[in-house]
Amino acid sequence: MSVALEVAVVGAGAFGLRHVAAYRSLGVPVTALVDPDPAVRDRAAAAHGVARTFGTVEDLLAAGAPQAASVCVPGPAHRAVAVTLLAAGVPVLVEKPLAATVADAAAIVAAARTHQVLCQPGHILRHSAPHRALYDAVRAGRLGQVLAVSSRRDRPRALSRLFPDEHPALLTAVHDVDLAIWYAQSPVVEVRATTRTRPGPASPVLVWAELRHANDVVSSIRNSYLLPDTTPNHTSDLVEVYGTDGVAHVDLGHPTLLVQAGQTEAPDWLLSPADGGGALAAELRHFVGQVTGAETSAVVPLADGLHVVQVATAMADSAAAGGEPRRISLEPLS
């Protein structure tokens, strides 16, 4: 795939640079990099051959709007960046979660609809080959009627130090909420959740949630930040779908390369490899196809991105209230 499309990446952190590498693997030029830290953006631009750098989205637009942009800034900044780009007519892929609050997510949806500009929520697992194969099996009826979805996602303890102000429900469990909605093929109407902490950190290091969908499917989500800091990501990720005619699962606990010598190494070749490719490249290929018109249907509808934020927020609220259930209205947000 080689497309004459000028793309900007907003946010030069670790995942923003994964976007740069993935675009390059597709033959799509990243012509601008935006980050408020001049040292970070200049170093990243030099390392990845990006010609132009800017401190703000406003500076980027003043120099000439790109044809598309990836929004890879921290969640609380998603609304300001995405709404500004959408108002300028720039199609955006917004990394998960769509926003840090329901109000911010609704504002992004409203901006996309008002300006009639593409906004693709960045839920990468819908573009992962094994997760997609499981979805295809569900859609084909191979498991019969879906009864339940269960998922587990464990991460190193360092996440609670790196992101002390971000609730696990909105940082990592959003992946599992999205998978639950996708595999159940139904929105969530009720949530019960609980959290636990470790001595020291005030923020939760474990979230445990039960979801009920509109079609009466039940989903269980378990996320923790309890693994040793040397543990690679993804090595315990598991999702299971239970149906009336069978059970299927995707287990990322068996990496294609596992090196255990001093420090365990299990490179991420499936989802977002550092040198491009994987599910991230598939996600960006779909985004570019949506921008150019080559793709006519959305893998992740914008409404699903908003609903994921609603459910994750309800999980955090339920846990804060001692596990009291939280109902989620399916009425459109104004």
Tell me what portion of residues adopts beta-strand conformation. 15-25%
Please give the oligomerization state of what you see: single chain
Work out the number of β strands. 15
Tell me, briefly, the overall form. Answer: globular
Number of domains: 2
User: Can you say what the CATH homologous superfamily of the largest domain is?
Assistant: Dihydrodipicolinate Reductase, domain 2
CATH topology of the largest domain: Dihydrodipicolinate Reductase, domain 2
Largest sheet: 7 strands, mixed
Q: Are there runs of 5+ residues with pLDDT below 50, and where?
A: none
Order of helices and strands: EHEHEHEHEHEHEHHHEEEEEEEHHE
Q: Separation of termini?
A: 39 Å
Helix content: 25-40%
The level-1 CATH class of the largest domain: Alpha Beta
Domain GFO/IDH/MocA-like oxidoreductase: 132-248
Protein name: Gfo/Idh/MocA family oxidoreductase
GO molecular function, one term: nucleotide binding
Domain Gfo/Idh/MocA-like oxidoreductase N-terminal: 6-123
